[in-house]
Amino acid sequence: MNVGIIGLGYVGLPLAVAFAQEGDQVIGLDLDPVKVDSLNRGESYIEDVDSEELSRLGGLIEASGNAAELARCEAVIICVPTPLTGSREPDLSFLESAARMLAGVLKQGQIVILESTTYPGTTRDLLAGALESSGLKAGTDFHLAFSPERIDPGRTDFTVRTTPKLVGGLTPESTEAAKAVYERICDRVVPLSGPEAAELSKLLENIFRSVNIALVNELAQLCDRLGVDVWEVIDAAATKPFGFMRFEPGPGMGGHCLPVDPFYLAFKAREHDFYPEFIELAGKINQSQPLFCVNRVEHVLNDNGKPVNGTRILILGVSYKAGVGDVRESPAIKIIRLLGELGGDLSYHDPHVAQLAESGLENSDLDEALDLADLTVIVTAHPEFNIPEIVEKSDLVLDLRGVTREIDAEHVTRL
User: Active-site residue 293, yes or no?
Assistant: First the structure.
């Protein structure tokens, strides 16, 4: 099978590799020439895909910036970003652009599948209409379906093959066509009644996490005022073998889905005069968590006779989660911005992120940065970090991830 994939990022590239491993010819479309050139040299730019594996797959993955190449594909999967605007509303401009490009080369009988996270109705109302500008009718002349991505960057226990795949087509025939595509690379494919059920299932998965993370982040704020160790409380509650699922507080949420999905669902709900206040509140709490963390920095410094202004603060880890280099919606970015506005002398170390262009910072050598810093703030606890050694070499430590719980040191403060 010839498979086209639009968008070669954290979702699209692992998919491309999965199909190529089954012997399928993959055409990857991306408008970033750096990514295209890198892939055609067999060099990966994301942690989950090994460059040696890309080279081994040889000519089975062909990257291009030319949409005309998609005309020779039996199936085309759209994996473009769906971020939020500055006013926290859905930004579907990448999807709209991809749809226009695909409509220009769409062929009779092709299977089009959207994987980008979005609100219910996007596949049927927006994507189908855009593709039908080709003169072909969705569900009749070409198949159209939604299948939410479930890739968790940096995770190895669940892969593209072992994670169940949801599929909802515009018609039963479209569902079956999309199901047949994914059965090539997934052990289990779950058909749903239509794209709306698949779209909403994805939102539920992530909003479930968002709500529970908001709950425990709010608990952390309360524990701070009560003088209670939130980590002790969570450890205690987690001893219950039923009825409790462990979630941990932190500096906030990041990535391409978790911080975005509550706002996508709320946007769609408002169109139907429904206001999901519980979901929206969770999103707001998680968005405000970096500000709480900055307040904790202020308190730690004040307790040690230091102002934020002019104090050398080292941020450890700036990606949104451990083990990856993705900084999309990372709470570290907001923490750096807020501390910078307060006059902090900031540096960061992250083995996965070479520079933060928006902050004007470059990755610092860890030993040098620890020697210079008045305060070390652990924002993202990468597995490469030797936490006991970092604590030993730091004047002051603020741990926003709870990774110093086994260390008894007076100069360490935890969230």
Answer: no
